[in-house]
Amino acid sequence: MGKILRLFFKFLTVFIVIAVLNRIGFSADNIGDARSIVKKVDELYRSDASYGLIEMNIITTHWKRKLKIESWSMGKKHTFIRILEPKKEKGMTTLRIDKEMWNYFPKTNKVMKIPPSMMMGSWMGSDFTNDDLVKEYTYFDDYHFEIINPDYAKKGETYVKCIPKDGMPIVWGWVILAVDTESYIPVWQKFYDEKGTLMREMYFREVKKMGNKIIPTILELIPTKKKGKKTIIKYIKAKFNMRIDKKIFSLRNLRSGN
User: Fold this and answer.
1) Phi and psi (nearest 5°) for 216?
2) Out of 63, 102, 151, 197, which residue is the most buried by the measure of CB atoms under 10 Å away?
3) Per residue in 215-226, pLDDT tens?
């Protein structure tokens, strides 16, 4: 009888643990879905090799500015960005190789290496950081994540909470991703500081096929603490899984102006 009671309580405990985990979103299925979602979000605009022609509009209450940009990437460790317009910034380039990053300024013919402490600094006065442009950190590798069911949940959307792993030099306390439940294409991302204050929101719009991928072609980033300010990125052209000359990702090419 004692053995039967011990087995009963053992199974009851397992049942309660599973029920609790399911309730808070840590079921095996949820963890698997969360992994698939963050991996897709990380790789949405990347592949083994990719190219993009992009317009960046920086908007404030006092002025507006438009940049035309070319961008190349190879895997997660190589990024090269060149400004085409306006004339004032034409030829300025950014190179990232693994965890190292450089900017080149043609007017002074100088290369500046970006220290890790500046990775969260503004890129070209926009609301995007250096890290946003070169994607030094990924949700899949550098965050813990779980599917959540918030009060504001909408039908057809799935939500993932991402918390930086211990020891990572990431400024966010956590990030919430909202994706289309069927396609896992992002709808929005919201970034919170360690105190839980919403610091910025990014919205994804105008989903189209470019190259061999379906992507949102417009990204709108709004800093919640800077009234009237936002940055909009529009993809004019994008190619994925293409051949790219590795020489693009070099300090010599940084100065080339091609």
Assistant:
1) -70, 130
2) 102
3) 999 999 999 999
- For residues 105 and 122, is the Cβ–Cβ distance under 8 A? no
Nearest to 53, CA basis, from 81, 89, 94: 81
Domain 29-254 -> CATH class: mainly beta
Distance in angstroms (rounded) separating the CA atoms of residues 73 and 44: 12
Cα separation, 26 vs 34, whole angstroms: 10
- Give 27's DSSP letter: S
Q: Rounded to 5 degrees, what are φ and ψ at 96?
A: -130, 130
The token pair at 237 is 């052209």
Helix or strand run (H / E) with residue 127:
none
Task: Please state the pTM of the whole predicted model.
Answer: 0.81
Identify the residue whose tokens are 């013919």.
Answer: 109
Domain definitions of the chain by residue range: 29-254
In angstroms, the CA 194 to CA 183 distance is 30
